Each structure stands twice: as C-alpha cells, then as structure tokens.
Amino acid sequence: MATLHLKSGRDRSLQRRHPWVFSGAVRAVEGDPAPGETVTVVSAGGQALGRAAWSPQSQIQARMWSFDPHEEIDAGFFRGRLADAVAARRLLGLEPDRAGACRLVHGESDGLPGLVVDRYGEVLVVQLLATGTEFWKETIADALIEVTGLATVFERSDAEVRRLEGLPERAGPLRGGPPGELAIAEHGLRFLLDPAGGHKTGFYLDQRDNRLRARGLAAGREVLDCFSFSGGFALGALAGGAASVLAVDSSADALALARRNAQLNGLDDGRFDTLEGDAFTLLRRFRDSRRSFDLIVLDPPKFAPTAARVDKATRAYKDINLLAFKLLRPGGLLLTFSCSGGVDAGLFQKIVAGAALDAGVDAAILAPLAQAGDHPVALAFPEGAYLKGLLCRVAGGRVP
Ligand code: SAH
Predict the structure, then answer these.
(1) Is 226 a catalytic residue?
(2) Given ligand 1 and candidates 229, 315, 320, which is best to mutate, with the most ligand atoms within 8 Å of its CB?
(3) How far apart, in whole angstroms, are the C-alpha atoms of residue 283 and residue 323?
(4) Please, are residues 236 and 215 in contact by the beta-carbon 8 Å criterion?
C-alpha cells in the first residue's frame, strides 16, 4: 500500500481526528497510488496515523477513512460504516418507511468523507463528492443495497465540488432503473420530488424540523416564504393555519412543483400564491409598496461556499435580512438561515443583529435553529454544522 508522509508538525489536526489532509501538509507520497486509492498516512516522526483516500488534484489531498492504521478499507468497512449510519437514524426515529425520507449518510460526520446518501422511500440517491468515494463507487452501491435491503440507487454526482477533485459531473442509475418522480411524506405532508432532475438530490431534508417549527407558528399569520423551492416552509405554514402564504423563488420549475405539492395536500384553497423572481428585487419592491407580513422565512442558497467569499456573502445576508425586518409587522417572526460553510453561527448572528439595527427594529432571538439530526456533526469535524438559523421576533406594538 502507498504511504503518505506528512511534514513535521502537520499531524496535529489528524491527532484530533479531523479527517482532512491539506496539500501543504504533505511531504511526499511513496508508491504510485491512483486517485482515490487507499494510502497509509504517516507523521514525520514515523507514526502511522490511519488510512485515507488519495486525492492528488484537490487542495484536500487525502481524506481519512480510518484512524486505525490497520483497518482494511474494503467492502466490509463500507458495510460497517453504512450500518452504523443507519443505526443512528433509527435512534432518531428517522429510518423511513415506504414513503418517508431521510439523509442516511452525511459525509465526514458519518465517517464516510465525500459520500452523501439520501433515502426517499424506496429509492437511494447518492452523491460521490471526492475521489475516494468515486474509487469505491461499485462497492458502495452494493453495500448500500445489502445494508438497506433496497434495490434502487441513483447517482447525482452532478455537483460543482467534483471539479475540485478533478472528477466530471455525472448523474444516472447505479442500481435499478431511473426512479422517476416520487412522493415522500414529511410530518404528515406529502412532497413530490424528482431525484434525477431536481436540486441536489431532489429535496432539502436538512430543514425538516424547521419546517415543522414554522408550521407551529403560522396560525392566523400572513406568511412570506422566500427561497421556497418546492414549498417546504410554505406548505408547513398553510397546514399550520396561516391566513395567507406567498412563496417566492427564482425558479419557475420549483414554484410549479410547490403548487402541485399544495394541490397534493389539499392546501390549494385560495390562501396560497407564488411569485417568480429574484428575492433581492422582490423584497425591495415589497418594501417600496409598504407591503407587510407576520412571518417571513429566508432560506437562501449558499452565498459563501468557502471562506474566500465571506465578505460578499455577508453583504447579501445583511441585505435580505434588513429588508425582511422592514417588512415585518410588530410581533412578526423571522426564520432566517445560512447554509454557507464560510459563515459560522457567531458571524450569522452578528449579521442579523446588524440588519435589525439598520432596519430600526428591536428584535430578539427566540430560538437558534440548525440542520435536522440526520445531518449529524462529528465532534472532530465542526465544518459539518453548515446550516444555522435564527427564529427572531420583532418587538410587539403598543397595547392600546
Ligand atoms: N426552503 C426550501 C429550500 C430552498 S433552496 C425548502 O424548504 O425546501 C434555495 C432556493 O433558492 C432554490 O429553490 C433556488 O431556486 C432559490 N434561489 C436561488 N437564488 C435565488 C434568488 N436570487 N431569488 C429567489 N430565489 C432564489
């Protein structure tokens, strides 16, 4: 087996079990491993630290499979890790039945760097995001079938991050046929999704609990669901008794799906409307026409995928949050999110605080919000906590 030798002093993060080896930490590679092949990682002092997948083209030149340098990386290894990931979901009551959905594997935090697996009813959708998971593709597909007892595995490796690994984007069936359109259930609501053509793997499972939270807060309120995609928050609010719900998204396809989802749940009862367009523009337009709401959801796409784009992202988050605060009536609620890896919870809170200040609004955080439990965060991998949110309440008006 090939060996990756670290530079002196560059084993510290691995000693803390952080799974990434950056290119600057690598002194030499002995042997001639193919991309994705397993290498033993050794400190400058000669201590074997574990086994990793070799990723020559990436800044992250190796991702640790195991911190046991003797552990074989083979089919049994993948079966074991996958079974453990499934066990964690079962503990949360999330292992889905025929119609349910959950994330079965959340990459590094499940000890499987570069692997995402979402389960939609009987269908598994995988993203192979690094050379290691690409190398073990067939083994992973077989192991998934063995561990879950399902027959359909569809690949959605058409993610931009693959380019950083020197891998082409790809989508298509891995096991079984193309899944077609599916309907899943979440907290008693049904959602249509298209694993082959929808965003990411077809649905944003990470917001499951927060959508339920919105549902519990929506009764009697006029709701704006900004960045709605297929209407996850909007349907929650309708089911929770909102007076009206307006879903905004720049994607006409997403909003068409949202309307079909409303129909599917019998919630297309005149309270629901959709508006296609750029949220930044539309929020401004609402402000200028003095439109107001009682509950606003802001769930934008990643503005800062990496730390390098944090400044620009900070301005964008500030902008939409400021506008939202201006649109909220006294006592109004804001559920605001960032899924940017480059923006941590502390910075996000500062941005939202700055937005309220500039909007001239007093507001308080009623609850911090985060990704659902099927998107765990390994303690050694704080980067796994990518989704942060705040439930804020604007101070109420005067009592007459
Ligand atoms: N809240 C959704 C997930 C949102 S994902 C849910 O619960 O499922 C982010 C969404 O933002 C995508 O649907 C994307 O089409 C939309 N989007 C991206 N840029 C936008 C923009 N500038 N204005 C409005 N929508 C945008």
Answers:
(1) no
(2) 229
(3) 6
(4) yes
Alpha-helix residue ranges (DSSP H) falling in 328-395: 345-359
- Give, for 81, the enclosing helix (H) or strand (E): helix 75-91
Pocket lining: 278 vs ligand 1, CB cutoff 6 Å? yes
Domains of the chain and any CATH numbers: 2-66 (2.30.130.10), 75-182 (3.30.750.80), 204-394 (3.40.50.150)
Tokens of 181: 């359109």
Q: Give the pLDDT of the chain (400 residues) as one tens digit per residue.
A: 899 999 999 999 999 999 999 999 999 999 999 999 999 999 999 999 999 999 999 999 999 999 999 999 999 999 999 999 999 999 988 876 677 899 999 999 999 999 999 999 999 999 999 999 999 999 999 999 999 999 999 999 999 899 999 999 999 999 999 999 999 999 999 999 999 987 889 999 999 999 999 999 999 999 999 999 999 999 999 999 999 999 999 999 999 999 999 999 999 999 999 999 999 999 999 999 999 999 999 999 999 877 788 999 999 999 999 999 999 999 999 999 999 988 999 999 999 999 999 999 999 999 999 999 999 999 999 999 999 999 999 999 777 7
Ligand 1 pocket member 204 (CB < 6 A): yes
Ligand 1 centroid to Cα of residue 398, in Å, is 35
* C-alpha of 128 from chain center: 15
**What atom of ligand 1 comes closest to residue 301's alpha carbon?**
9
Q: Find the DSSP H helices in 92-245.
A: 131-135, 137-148, 208-217, 232-239
